[in-house]
UniProtKB/TrEMBL annotation:
Statement: the UniProt record of this protein carries the keyword Transferase: yes
Protein name (record): ATP-binding protein
Keyword Kinase: yes
Keywords: ATP-binding, Kinase, Membrane, Nucleotide-binding, Transferase, Transmembrane, Transmembrane helix, Two-component regulatory system
Source organism superkingdom: Bacteria
SUPFAM superfamilies given in the database record: ATPase domain of HSP90 chaperone/DNA topoisomerase II/histidine kinase
Signal peptide location: none
């Protein structure tokens, strides 16, 4: 198969491992929600601040020094909060600064500014910013303090309003209406902010759990794949070399055992490098597979016909390597359990579509369904190896013989 692109490997490397804490990743939706809330607050607060500023400038001709100081105390942190909301930096700090400064300025309004309302319908500019103080608390403070601001600021406003009107009956009616409206609006604003943040937190938590589960599954699959690969390696190379050494009773057999042991040691040394273990990914044709299978027959001391059919056949090097190793295991099983009787090998090329290898013998056969889970010669060295390169393996056996069919085709 083609080598994995660098960009995909880089993307996989950015998935956090199980148990790791990636704050920016885990709070992605929460961070986006905070940004959206800040922008919405900036837009709404700008409109209210413009109204308040127009009213304040309109009354500057009658303002004293204390009134000008009050303007600076309120509008300076308000402007800083609006800029922070728009640029997305220091939102909590400047919002908290304005929320506190506004409450203090509102509470001190009757004593600092000498301005009595002529009627209940006339309101000083500072009253336009009551709900701005509430949304500032929503951006800056924990939930409990947010509700304190949502409930407390309207009552502070009501008290100041009554003081301005001398606690007259006319002011009681209009102030009660204003306080109730401001109180309800403030609680709704805080509740909406809490709801949106809760939804975002739930999405982030679900995403974190999904990533953790996927990472755990990927790690488990990788460990299982490595275990199967190591088991196949031990069975194909190490155990085969040991058996060959044990049965070596002449010079030729000893040389064969030494060669098999050298190959086993090389493959064990290369287990850390997948490319070195599986070979190059350069395309391999059916003719090269025929050569490899004849070499395997020679090393196993077996005599059989290797027949090449069909077209040239080209498959990736790793798939060809797996195909040869699985076929070699099937040949070894035929030699061991059927004494190589009627051994016949067919390599059939299908152009660029793939290659199929069929190994058949006329031995006594066996029950495929009775193969134990610990029989690595078939499960790991044939089935698992072919599955590892997206190939297929099929074994049919009865009293007339056994046929192993190995196929690798392009999807």
């Amino acid at each position: 198969m083609p080598a994995e692109p660098l960009s995909i490997r880089d993307a996989w490397s950015k998935i956090p491992s199980p148990g790791s804490t990636e704050t920016a990743f885990e709070r992605f939706t929460g961070t986006r929600m905070e940004r959206i809330l800040a922008i919405v607050v900036a837009i709404g607060s700008t409109a209210l601040a413009a109204q308040a500023l127009i009213a304040a400038v309109h009354g500057l001709s009658h303002a004293d020094a204390a009134h000008i100081v009050m303007l600076v105390v309120v509008f300076a942190p308000l402007a800083a909060m609006l800029v922070a909301c728009l640029v997305g930096r220091g939102v909590r700090t400047f919002s908290g600064l304005f929320a506190v400064a506004y409450v203090l300025a509102l509470a001190a309004w009757p004593t600092v500014v000498d301005q009595a309302d002529k009627s209940a319908g006339d309101q000083p500019w500072i009253f336009f910013l009551v709900n701005v103080g509430v949304v500032a608390a929503m951006l800056a403070f924990p939930l409990r303090l947010q509700f304190v601001w949502a409930v407390g600021v309207p009552f502070v406003y009501g008290y100041v309003r009554l003081v301005q009107g001398g606690f007259s009956r006319e002011f009681w009616v209009t102030t009660a209406f204003d306080v109730s409206f401001t109180l309800i609006l403030g609680v709704v604003i805080i509740s909406l902010g809490w709801m949106f943040r809760s939804v975002a937190a739930g999405v982030d938590e679900a995403r974190g759990q999904a990533v953790a589960s996927y990472s755990t599954a990927a790690a488990t699959a990788a460990a299982e794949e490595e275990r199967v690969a190591m088991s196949a390696l031990m069975h194909d190379s190490v155990l085969a070399a040991l058996i060959a050494a044990e049965r070596a009773d002449n010079e030729r057999a000893k040389e064969l055992a030494v060669a098999m042991a050298r190959e086993a040691l090389t493959r064990l040394a290369n287990t850390e490098a997948a490319v070195a273990q599986e070979g190059s990914d350069e395309p391999v044709g059916a003719a090269q597979i025929v050569v490899e299978l004849r070499r395997a027959l020679s090393e196993l001391g077996a005599d059989a016909i290797v027949e090449e059919r069909g077209g040239v056949g080209l498959i990736p090097g790793r798939a060809a390597r797996a195909l040869v190793l699985a076929a070699r295991q099937a040949i070894g099983n035929a030699v061991t359990h059927a004494n190589g009787r009627g051994l016949h090998i067919i390599v059939e090329g299908h152009g660029d579509e793939g290659i199929g290898v069929t190994i058949s013998d006329t031995g006594p056969g066996f029950d495929v369904g009775a193969i134990g889970a610990d029989r690595l010669g078939i499960r790991a060295s044939i089935f698992a190896r072919m599955a590892g390169v997206a190939g297929t393996a099929d074994i049919r056996s009865d009293e007339h013989g056994t046929t192993v069919t190995l196929v690798w085709e392009r999807s």
